[in-house]
């Protein structure tokens, strides 16, 4: 399992989100999921990926509160501690 | 009150013959076969060339091909810039035989190998049979009733029939209709193979003595159907008309057609009656013509019953499956499109690969060489037959441009 350093998590989350549709350069920490057209199905896929990579289990309620890419990165890093 | 008339204003196809309905007819008439290594795969179709990354990863191949065929059809109908009717008055009634089978198999592999957590949250929207319907509705902002039609190899024609009725009863001003199928998978090959339906030689040669089963193909067909007066009022180019539609059921056997052809003949008679036509008006029959022993014999019997021996022997009959293979739930749509385009080109397209006539099958199947089509009365008239596992029989009576 990969070590959840903030840099590693950011790179992985950005890569994953970019694979779902938006261009990679749109996927910044400040970008909102709404702007990126990232919906609830995408967030479930993101949760699968971070669970596989970092062993962090994210539930539906965790995902609901996320608004930006940075929110998701921070949550994964915090949970992985 | 006369019933509203339903016209075709746009068509699009993806098939083993490539992308585009005109290309399909051109290649078919030229005697080309879109079958490679025993399958009619749409080798030229790469979804990401036509769809956004998001659309492509959220759809199975059958829905992807439906979207691409719909872009062609909408462009031809003149709908690409702006819809000509309220979105609430435009329906999507679209067929598949099976749905997203490739996605089912992929997700099942993940489930078996890696457990429940590995299954994609996109699984259901990938493989549900109405996935193409949903994709078409979302891609083009169509907000009238939308649903999938499933009747195996008759589904594409049922979709056109249901769409025609929806316009005739006033439920919609226009309908995006047709069908799509993409089941060139391990499971489908094994399943159709085990029941003896697939050709072991991998050759589609309907009505030939040596025919030994169908060749599986994949593809999509989309037709834009509109209420005729509205289509004329907006200046649309009218490609053809759905003059009549009928459907019956064999109630005979799970997969084999009734060899007497009785119920299929009923569908032919009822479609002609619905169109206010007689067998003597028919210039061409686009057969279901699967290249299976049973279908091609029972279909011949059905045409003879419905037309009578004399007229049955006069009408030219051919099978699109001789060039595309059998695209299952897409077949009825692709074949209705090919029929209308052939009529408008005044061509009777041929049954390819028919070199050894079956002495039991004694109608005119237009072997290998196309002919000029000479309409008997003004605008050309054709029937398109589709029959599905489960005993579903559908016949469309189609009119081409005068």
Description:
The complex is a heterodimer of chains A (81) and B (402). Chain A has 81 residues and is mainly alpha-helical. Chain A has a single domain, classed as Non-ribosomal Peptide Synthetase Peptidyl Carrier Protein, Chain A. Chain A has 5 helices and no strands. Chain B has 2 domains: 6-233, 3-Layer(aba) Sandwich (Peroxisomal Thiolase, Chain A, domain 1); 245-400, 3-Layer(aba) Sandwich (Peroxisomal Thiolase, Chain A, domain 1), CATH 3.40.47.10. In chain B, strands 1, 2, 3, 4, 5, 6, 7, 8, 9, 12 and 13 form an 11-stranded mixed beta sheet that branches.
**Helix fraction bin of chain B:** 25-40%
- What's the number of extended β-strand segments of chain A? 0
Q: Topology as H/E string of chain A?
A: HHHHH
Number of helices of chain A: 5
Helix content of chain A: 55-70%
- Name of the CATH class of the largest domain in chain B: Alpha Beta
Oligomer: heterodimer
Question: What's the quick description here?
Answer:
By secondary structure, chain A is mostly helical. Chain A has 5 helices and no strands.
Keywords:
heterodimer, A: 81 residues, mainly alpha, Non-ribosomal Peptide Synthetase Peptidyl Carrier Protein, Chain A, 5 helices, 62% helix, 0% strand, globular, B: 402 residues, alpha/beta, Peroxisomal Thiolase, Chain A, domain 1, 2 domains, eleven-stranded mixed sheet, two-stranded antiparallel sheet, 14 helices, 13 strands
